C-alpha cells in the first residue's frame, strides 16, 4: 500500500531534488550550499595531492573531509527518509529500498564511503579517488536533467549517422596507419615496425595531437602523414556537424512544444512572461 508522505517529507524532498524554487530562499540556499560543497570537496582532493600542501594543511584537509562526509551522511539519510514523496518510491520500506538501488543513490553512497573510509581504522587510502564521483552529482544538483535527456534522444535518433561517421574515422585511421607502416618500417623499425605501432602514431595524427614521439622521415611517409592529418580533421568534422544539427533541431522542437503549451512563454528561456499592460483607451472604446 502506498505510503502517504508527510508534509515534512515533501518539504525535504523538494529541498534536495536539485530544482530550487525561485520564490523559496531556503530552497535556493540549499541548492547553492550543496553545489559549493561538491566543488570544494573536489578542490580539496586536488590540492591535497601536492606534498607541500599536504604537509602544511593535511590535518585541516582531513578535518574538512570529516565535516563534508558528515554533511553528506545527513543528506543521504534525509533523501532515504523523504523518498516516499516521490510516487515511484511511495510503498513504504520497499520503495525506499528501490530508491537506495537507483544509480544516483548508489553514487551518493560511494561518495560518502570515499569521504569517511580513509579516516576509519582501515587501510584503503585509494578510496579517496572515488570522491571524484561527486562531480557527477553536479549534474543532478545543477538541473541538467532535461539537457541530458535531450542528448539521449539525439544519440538514439542519429545513431545510424553517427555509426557511419565513426566508421569513416576508423577506416581512415586503419588504412593510413597501415600504409605508413609499410613505407616507414625499414627506416624506423622501432617506431613503425608493426601496424599497432603505426596505429599509435595514426591516432596522434588523426586527432591532431602530435606528441612528436613518432613521425615519418621518408618523403612518402610525410606525404601520407599530411593526407592523414587533413582527412582526420574532415572525418571528425562529420560527427560534429551531425550532432550540432540534431541539437538545433531538438531545441527548435522543444521550443515549439513549449510555445504551444504556453503561448505567453519566453521563446528563449521558456519562462512565463508578464502579460502586457492593458490600454485604458482601448478598454473605453470597447
Overview of the structural elements:
The chain is mostly helical and 286 residues long. Helix 1 runs antiparallel to helix 3, helix 2 runs antiparallel to helix 6 (134-141) and helix 8 crosses helix 10 (195-206). It folds into two domains: 7-143, Four Helix Bundle (Hemerythrin (Met), subunit A); 154-261, Helix Hairpins (Orthogonal Bundle). It is built from twelve helices and no strands. 70% of the residues lie in helices and 0% in strands.
Topology (SSEs and partners):
Elements: H1 7-16, H2 25-48, H3 51-81, H4 92-100, H5 103-116, H6 134-141, H7 145-157, H8 159-184, H9 189-192, H10 195-206, H11 219-261, H12 280-285
Helix pairs in contact: 1-3, 2-3, 2-6, 3-5, 5-6, 7-11, 8-10, 8-11
Total E-strand runs: 0
Q: Could you say what the CATH topology of the largest domain is called? A: Four Helix Bundle (Hemerythrin (Met), subunit A)
Tell me the series of helices and strands, N- to C-terminal.
HHHHHHHHHHHH
Total of domains: 2
Give the rounded overall mean pLDDT.
Answer: 79
At the first level of CATH, the class of the largest domain is Mainly Alpha
Q: Low-confidence parts, pLDDT < 50 over ≥5 residues?
A: 121-125, 267-271
Q: Which structural class do the helices and strands define?
A: mainly alpha
Q: Determine the fraction of residues in helical runs and give it as a percent range.
A: 55-70%
Assigned CATH architecture of the largest domain: Up-down Bundle
| Main pleated-sheet profile | none
